[in-house]
Amino acid sequence: MITVNKPGMQMTIQDLGRNGYRHIGVARSGALDPYAMIIANRLLNNPDNTPVIEITLGLAQLTFTTDCVVALTGADMKATLANSPLAPGWTYQIKAGQKLCFATSRSGFRAYLAVKGGIVCSPTMGSCATDVAAQFGGLTGRALQTGDHIPITHYNGIWSQRGAISPAARQHIRVHSSPHKHLLTEQSLTAFCQTTWHISPNSNRMGLRLTNQACDLTHIRSLPSLAVGPGSIQLPPSGEPIVLLNDAQTTGGYPLLGTVISADLHQFAQLKPGDTVKFSYVDLAVAAQAQSKLNAHLQQLKLALNTLKIKR
Asked: N or C: which end of the chain has fewer CB within 10 A?
């Protein structure tokens, strides 16, 4: 069992999300940085979709009431276990009664805590992902709170400390071209890519709002509702683009500046208010190549960890 002493800014139970329900208005939800989550689970030889705890910003504290082995990935939140520092990207053994503490993030914005054997959680619509807006999944459909008890699998078997390198971050986020080019001027699309955008504090798991007072993309256009999803970049009348994330609505009536390619979308999980980002348009071939490269990184990690397991 894990007891939540301090949940920090936001702490939720997530997996890779629920698919196949967008036609009835159900968001995908799930870990905003799925690759950090997958790496954490692979370090523990868990199935990739094993539920984890997603920790936003830090300032959190957990107490473990049973022995277990965990993996910590994603943002570096200056974590400590019994006052000893922990680095992200590694596995650690935790004894009953020990406290795992997180300060504010040194780099990144979301950390992932996986447990050997997994968190015990009943799925809703095939997933344990917490959808706070819809109030289902995770622990009774809400963010974790002080005093919550999270059931986990007890494990006191053989373990060895293992680590992994996460995919490198990019300075420019790659984007598929806009399906609404006919509604937007060439100058607007060029300005979107040439501008250094700032992450607004008015951002959450539904979407990241981008700001730059020097770039004016204001408009008065609206569209009939159309399907949108994680990665869609909406342009509301204010001219401040919104990058939709996992908890976003399934339809929208704003023009789209484009769609973030799947290989780059996870990077928005690690951007905090005040961080900057730039965009560049790419074609489908580049997007497919980027996804193949990312998949190869994860496959190499899996093979390397399996080799270590065989040698033991």
From this structure: C
